Amino acid sequence: MRVHRGLTVARPPAEVFALIGDGDRYGTFFAGLTRWERLGGDGERFRILACVGPIQAGGVVRVIERQEPEELAWESEAGVEQSGRWRLEPVGDDDATRVHLEILFRLRGPGSWLAERLMARVVGRNMEATLLAVRRLVEFERVGAA
To answer: Of 26, 47, 121, 127, which is least packed with CB atoms within 10 Å of its CB?
Structure first.
């Protein structure tokens, strides 16, 4: 199931990327996460745990793409099959940013198609809350400002 949400932030892409590109900060703004902790070793790998309604699901994800300040993507290595992507587009004269967040997940087993559709609603609401938190942090608290 693919879920996409977006909004515009009144700050340049570099300031938005300073926040979303810092994997150690996800626990402070990504709605629904109960755990997002960096794992040792090579690359950017994180153990995650998220609440999707009454269900807790998680696993290990790794960053697979980082193009500052335009894109950041991750995918699962273990646990729930999922991936995500942030995409930032300058708006106007580069003083605002259209922020896109996309999450794809796949469940297995009997009835998984129905469970995916139900989960997509909760995931979408969490993504909307996440984007609003990014806007608040970058616009008003100036997290990521140079």
So the answer is: 121
Conformation bin of residue 59: beta by default, left when phi > 0, alpha when psi is -120 to 50: left
Please state, in angstroms and as integers, the Cα–Cα distance from residue 37 to each residue in 22, 46, 59, following that order.
12, 5, 11
Q: Are 101 and 20 in contact (CB under 8 A)?
A: no
Angle at 65 between CA 60 and CA 66, to 5 degrees: 115
**pTM of the full structure:** 0.89
CB-based contact 16:138 (threshold 8 Å): yes
Q: Which CATH number fits domain 2-140: 3.30.530.20, 3.40.50.1980, 1.10.3720.10, 1.20.58.1000?
A: 3.30.530.20
Token reading at 121:
């609603």
Element (H, E) at 64: strand 55-67
Backbone angles phi, psi at 24, to 5 degrees: -75, -10
- Cis, bond preceding 69 (omega within 30 deg of 0): yes
Q: For residue 123, which amino acid is it?
A: V
